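Record pair follows.
FIRST:
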Amino acid sequence: MSRVLRASVGTLLAFLVLNIGLPSAYAVPVFARQTGLPCQSCHTVAPELTPFGRDFKLRGFVLSALPKIESKTSTPLSLNRMPAFALEVDLADSFTQTSQPGTQNGNVQFPSKLKLFAAGALGDNVGMFSYLEYTQPDDHFSIDLTDIRVVGSGEIAGKDAIYGLTINNAPTLEDPWNTLNVWSFPHVHSEVAPTPATAALLGGTLADSGLVAGVGGYILWDNHWYADVTLYRSAPTGAAQPIVKPGATEGLVPYARFAWQSTLGPDYLELGASAIQAKFIQGISGAGAGGLDDRYRDISADAQFEHPVGDNLLTLHAAYIREQQTLDSSSAASLSNPADSLNTLRADGTFLLRPFTAFSLAYFSTTGSRDPQLYTAAPITGSAGKPDSDGWILQVDFLPLQNIQLIVQYTLYDKFNGTRNNYDSAGRSAADNDTLFLLAMFDF
């Protein structure tokens, strides 16, 4: 580890020297422009949301302080005079404990990502969140996460209610909490370091855009009870219609989310559960037997707790996912067992030392069925016959400005793709993939 830290200290110092002396100021990304409010109104440490941020999202991103063009004709218009755009530039560097064969250790990404956000109010009760993203490993632009909402509010059974429709392209994208999939910790990670080979549907398999798209409805009743049901269908990018791309989902992919929230004195608590079910044509890899599919069913439980400590804040998140896999297509092609299971546990805590610094610690664990046909040996990315991986993540965030975020993250693996030592049958151990990740995020 000392070798890794010595190699990275120059990069870390460069990040800090460029920014540590800057005065405090309001951030100017997309929603700050629209609302005229600082980023910390909606976020603790982005993208984690405050109570105000959760309410802003549930109400469709429509709160605005911008001058508007309005018309009250039979076809009404309520449009911000200035569109709400923002740009994010990310610079990154990654160091693994042991170099990947044939590669340089210390892989600078300049930039690692470039995001153009187009988001905000489209009308009095219609809003959206969307961005175009450049990713350095792929070296291309693509439309990434998108959430369009039509919202309303009123009374139901004598209690206040917020309700709406969502059109989005990733299950859990619509979620206002930070416990599952799209918005769960860690919010950033190295894109060039080895990572565990498998994840549950609610743990990331369908999190990326360009796989599915869906429409659903949600309601928050009495400020306590939340329900969301969204139906997705396959929507892979770069595929002709009708979709015949192997590995695409088949038919409807139903997703349901239920949660209860409450304030307990100065504290806040959320308890939730969710479920999703999907069929994949010829399996997720697309290499299974033709005419068959693989079926996945996830059930999860999650919790979020917030506790103020003076002017500072402690946030805790936990999620458990149980996935059942019926692998007819993969099994018929001798690529897997007929059925497998996967269990994922994640827990993290962040202490926000206002106004500049946050310290985070997370534990993650994945266990599952032994399946040597599915989890095969290969240098670096291979497995020892099982999906088991677990470890810890330590992270420090520094915010010299609300729209500049500097991150130092260290990931330590106890197990990786099945075991601790020689998991890939090529001599690589789990600890060889321990990763120091440095990231600077600039929002304009």
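SECOND:
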Amino acid sequence: MSKRKGLLLDQQGIVGTALRHLELADWDFLTLDNLEAARRALNGKPPLVGLVVFDSARSWPARALESLIATHQIEWIAVLDRGLMHDRVLAPLIARNFHDFHTLPLDRERLLMTLGHAHGKAVITRAAAEYAQDSGRFGMTGNSPRMLELYRQIEKIVTVDAPVLIGGESGTGKELVARAIHSHSERASGPFIAMNCGAIPPNLIQSELFGHERGAFSGAHQRQSGNIEAANNGVLFLDEIGDLPLDLQANFLRFLQERTIVRVGSTERIRVNVRVIAATHVDLTRAVADGRFREDLFYRLNVVHLKVPALRERASDITMLADWTFNENSHQKAPQVKGFSSDALRAMQEYAWPGNVRELINRIQQAMIMTENRLITTTDLGLPKSADDNAKRTLDEVRATVEKEIIVDNLRKDRNNVSEVARQLGVSRVTLYRMIDRLNIVL
């Protein structure tokens, strides 16, 4: 059986010597006397458990020690004289940052139990982090039926080079989907140029897209390539394509048809090889009907259509997304923060998330920095604790979401065999068909 690895920070070496005398056969400790050496050692494969020795003769720099502890997923144990347990500086430091403590002198059985608990906790913590990382595809997190369907669609899209139109509410991750398509396609080695059509003044957007020659307009002191040209042999991602001015839509349509551009102030046609991925949170079919978007451009862009689900449509992914966000931002959290309270997780499941994943990440990041609690609470997240028509789904809505996910998942596994799925769910075929119709499930 291989030994469990541990790190011992011991400035005077007294505890290190005592550990060797205790003959802890299952443990192998690397003993270091300074934080810089510990930081270098942890850049490799960090152990699961660490011991920090505190004594009255010498003290660790508190801020540097907390920074080291916050950087790595290690369960730390403080080793100290009993008299230091009530030290006004040391006691809060240990309470915020350490899994447990052990008072001197070392007791073999008691120490083995403390080490065992810390090791078990570290194993669970790392397994949860790995699960969060593996629970998704294409750099995205989630395994709800809606996300599994999105992954299947992306798999088909990356093998072709057609234009893609991505729909979905603000904050759902449309650019993340576009980047996934680019990085898994044959254009992955080419550039990915992103441009938000709604964030650029109308008088500058033509120059941003097509580029301009020197002297083309006031302030054009030198030739400049546009985003289309910059994306040559790669992908141009146009976010909020619905905000593209109507008069410029004709120029962009001509580029899609001819694969050439003309810089502002020039007559030279430049051939470019660009895949266009566009995104919008508005209904472009309605914009076409209202005369705000060209119908011919819409059909040119909408060769392949993707819909990124809203967060409320993939509620089963929320805990997974919360864990992913927590792990990705662990370097900037308050030292004592270890995770989420059960009430906070429940509140996140019940909240409607009008800002979708962007709002979820923002609330969690703020809570990780500002909370004074060990576990992030509902209050830390700024979420309602009780039922609220604007923030909390009704029981019928929750039930419908769960029913839909179960039915869609079973239909996928059994290749839309309604009879087999009805048998597995314990309902009649007629009842299942009614549920499919009521929940708007497409077979």
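COMMENT: The first helix runs from residue 14 to 22.
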